[in-house]
Every structure is written in C-alpha cells, then in structure tokens.
Amino acid sequence: MGVRFLVLVVLSVTLMVVDARFTLLKPVRSQMSLVLMQSYWITDLPQRLWQGVASQFGSRTELVAENEKLKTENLLLQGRMQKLAALTEQNVRLRELLNSSALVNEKVEVAELIGMDPNPFTHRIIINKGERDGVVLGQPVLDARGLMGQVVELMPYTSRVLLLTDTTHSIPVQVNRNGLRAIASGTGNPERLELRHVADTADIKVGDLLVSSGLGQRFPAGYPVATVKEVIHDSGQPFAIVRAVPTAALNRSRYLLLVFSDSRTPEERANDAAQAQEAEQSGEAPAIVPTTVPKPALPASTAVPVAPAAAPAAPAAVVTDPKAVKKPAPVATPAAARTPAAVPATTRERQ
Hints:
351 residues; elongated; 6-stranded antiparallel β-barrel
C-alpha cells in the first residue's frame, strides 16, 4: 500500500508540473471536462430540483405578500392624491386672490446623462439637451427624487450641469417642518451637504427634510434637496455643524428633468413689475383728471351772468348752457374738456 501510495503521489506531482509548465495536457483536460460535466449535472440534479421547487413556492408566497402590500400602498397614495388635488386647487384660488403670478406646476423636459467630468474634485455632468432645445444658463435640473444642480455651460446640443455637492455650489433651503432657512453648500462628497451658519439653538434635528426656498431666484421653491443626517452642537461655538444627505441620486441617475419655470432674469422681472405698476396707475388716472379739468371753463360761466337758467348754487365747474348740461359725460382729458366749454362761450359773446 505504501508503494502504491508513493507511486500515485509521484504521478500526481508529475501531472501537475507538466500541466503548469507545458500545454500537452490541455486537450486531455478539455475532453475530460466534457465527460465529467455530465456526471456533475447528474449528481447535482436532486439539489437543483429541490431548489427549484422551493423557489417556486417561496416566490409565489412573496409575490402574494408583495401584491397585498402594493394594493395597500396604492390605496393610501390614491387617498393622498385626492387630498393633494384639493390642496392644489385651494392653492390656485389663494394665489388668484393674492394676484400672484407664481406658477403651481412648472414645465419640464426629460434629458439624459451622456458624460461626466473626469476631474474628481469637480462634480459636473453633461446632458443631451442644449441651447437648440431651449435650455438656458442657471436652469434647474432634478431627478425623480429631488434637485440635482443647475446648468452652468451651454452648447448647441449639450449642456454642462453643476451638481449640488460641488464645493463651489450653494443653495438656499428651508426646513420643511418649521420653515427654518439656511444655506446648503457642497462638500466635494457626492453623499453629503453642509448647512452653513446655523445657530446652535436652531430648531433642526436628524431626519428633517430640506426643500428649496426659492430665495436665490434660481431654483423653484418646494423641491426636496436633502435630508438632515447629523447635527452636532458645541457649546463653545456659535453655530452648529449640520450635515445632510442629498435626496437625489447624484451618482446613479441617468434620466433627468429640466425645469422651465421663469427664464427671466431678476432685472427683467423687476422691470416687468414696474411697468405693470405704471400701467395700473395710468388706468386709474381718468378718475382723477376731472378734479382739475374744469378750470379752463371758468371764463365761460362768468361771461353770461344774465342767463336765466344759471343756478346760483352751482359750482364753478358746471356749465350754464342747457345744451351743454345734457352732455357732461364725454369729459375725459383736459383737451376734451376745454372744447365743449369754449364753444358755448363764443356763441354767447356773439349773441
């Protein structure tokens, strides 16, 4: 037995050395693998049958449970959608009462990510929509979960987007729970944002949702930005350290949304508001003009003191001619007011 064992060991070592050093045994190994594969398949058949049956029953149970869960969630979401529809209509009515021109639903367009900036210290991406598609500088970009960034460079058919987590980017946000305002700045980490200059006594805690406040005149208000992950209070520092995780999948999303809300610059919006205010004031001017218009008509009333139809208690602006009294309404401007008052004066002088 010892001799046989020694012979087998020597043979095994020889075969391993030959197989490692030379290619003589490769055809033999390939043919043996074909033969042994059948035996492997036969020996593994009971195990595979058992796993198949278990997976069939297990997957059916899981599918039934998942179906019930989805039905429940669908019912809850439908109830919330009904309430959201009522709230949206109420918001529209309130905005109409306040004469607000803010949009409730913005126009969006789907874009696709086609490239990324190779610089690890710059968080920028390239999308397949450009200037020819109506994209403008500073246009907000978001995915299915929240805001991602804004357009910083335009090309005819592509655009470059600066992400929220870039070290040069900041966005004004507010806590959705209580409306606390802050500035969220990028840290260079695609999974983290920091809130700058938050007072140590501020009402902010882990789990709070941060939404865009719209105060920067760049991003529309109300879109989710990040979720507070860590709040560190230091009694020796005036500001707390607040770290948040972006809600958008910045390093995983491929399809994005371009928001078309209001492409006007703040200066253009201010000019339009000033012009609207001037137009409104000019529309109220005709109601004020008649208080100063009758002054040119005073000589006409003083030139005919002997007219029998003149009323002693009539104000100086009233014309004494009966024909003119019947038509006082057309007075709208000073030029129009002088004409009907001057004609009776000349006729009376001739008489």
